[in-house]
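Researcher: We are triaging several targets before committing to wet-lab work. For this one, the compound of interest is S-adenosylmethionine. I'm pasting the protein sequence and the ligand SMILES. What I need is the predicted three-dimensional arrangement of the protein with the ligand bound, expressed as structure tokens, so it can go straight into our comparison scripts without reformatting.
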Amino acid sequence: MAIVRVREHVNPLSRRYQTPTSPPDWSQVFADLSRPLHLDIGCGRGVFLLKMAEQEPEWNYLGLEIREPIVKQALEWRDEAKLNNLHYIFCNVSNSLHPMLASFPKGSLARVSIQFPDPWFKRKHQKRRVVQPEMVSTLAEFMSPDAIVFLQSDILDVAKQMVDRFAESPHFIQDSSEWLAENPMPVPTERELMVQLFGDPIYRSIFRRSELEIPNQVV
Ligand SMILES: C[S@@+](CC[C@H](N)C(=O)[O-])C[C@H]1O[C@@H](n2cnc3c(N)ncnc32)[C@H](O)[C@@H]1O
């Protein structure tokens, strides 16, 4: 696997990323669109999804990522692995999540992961963080009852902020108020492996979509 070198962070609020990305025809992308969908937000180089897609062929996997060169590379690796249940899209989740999810068959979205999102430490930059109330509302709109969101970060403040955004939504219920002791996913992400190498703590949590319907939602 040759590694493409790219900038570490891009600013999702910069002008370059303000045009939402149109979704493809999913029936041309996935071999079987009736499979449950796992969405990974900020998937980076996509190795987590590549391994998940190999291990669980009965799921479809979609990664959304704002750095275009690594999405191109992830798609090449996907093609080399000949996987028909995996796709990556170069987009800004902040403005493209809604159109992406709206174009899937209703009830597809069964699992979402947001793993080690960019921390944007400076207070004035925190609006660049990927988990914002609008994103939580969009996920609530498209997730079926009992579908899960898995969150993890090595930065306590980032993990707490993600948990707070989901906890303040009436459409999500936290599995446990304690940080999870183990990663419930069978595959670690690239960032996770690095953090583990340094022996640093990782803060993990799971939320479930509640039964509560969104007013005016056509079911
Ligand atoms: C620290 S990396 C973690 C990558 C991977 N999840 C992992 O755990 O190895 C965070 C990723 O989120 C992407 N990202 C940040 N903001 C984004 C946005 N608004 N839309 C899509 N991707 C975004 C970044 O480009 C980066 O690849």
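Researcher: Any quick observations?
Model: The mean pLDDT is 95.
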